[in-house]
Amino acid sequence: MTGACRRRRSRLADADRGGASIQILYIAIIGLLFTAALHGGGTVLAARSHGYGLAQSAARAGAQQIDVATYRATGELRLDPTLAAQAAIRFLAEAGATGVINRITAAEITVTAISRQPTPALRTLGHPTVTVTATATAAITPQP
Fold first, then answer.
1. In this predicted model, what pLDDT tens digit does every residue of 11-33 receive, in sequence order?
2. How far apart are CA 103 and CA 138, in angstroms?
3. N or C: more exposed end of the chain, with fewer CB within 10 A?
4. Angle CA 113–118–122, to nearest 5
């Protein structure tokens, strides 16, 4: 190889130094951000699922409160509206949530649960909790 070729090769090698390191750094940062977004999104979905579970359970607790006097007199299963509302609200309070009773009929109860769920993956971004509102309906069921 001639001296001119060696000098040209040497200059090209000097111009490339560090370029791959910067690309790897960018790829690593993008990968970390993508992983954090997935983890944070999964945490929010889990919180929503838990909130919906609270609403379903509260509605089921209310749907077990039958009007005993009507059942003994006629054999008809009907909800006792007062007991059903109290049972649903009590369940939510014991679970650390609040809520409202949207509707009570003779056969079903609809409950909206409001809870604050922790989001540890989002704590560093300033969102340690997320407020979840979920609504569920349950049909009357006799108590065991």
1. 555 555 666 788 888 899 999 88
2. 11
3. C
4. 130
- Find, among 53, 55, 47, the residue nearest to 99 by Cα: 55
Which CA distances in Å does 82 have to 3, 89, 96, 135? 98, 11, 21, 19
Task: List C-alpha distances in Å: 28 to 23, 39, 89, 123, 132.
Answer: 9, 16, 48, 22, 33
Helical pair 19-63 and 81-94, crossing angle rounded to 10 deg = 150
Calculate the dihedral angle through the C-alpha atoms of 69, 71, 77, 80, rounding to the nearest 10 degrees.
Answer: 10
**How does DSSP classify residue 139?**
E
Query: Tokens at residue 140, please?
Result: 């009357």
Query: If you write DSSP's letter for every residue of 71-138 in order, what string do you get?
Result: HHHH----B-HHHHHHHHHHHHHHTT-EEEEEEE-SSEEEEEEEEEEE-GGGGGGT-SEEEEEEEEEE
Structure-token match 């379903």, residue found: 56
- pTM of the entire predicted model: 0.72
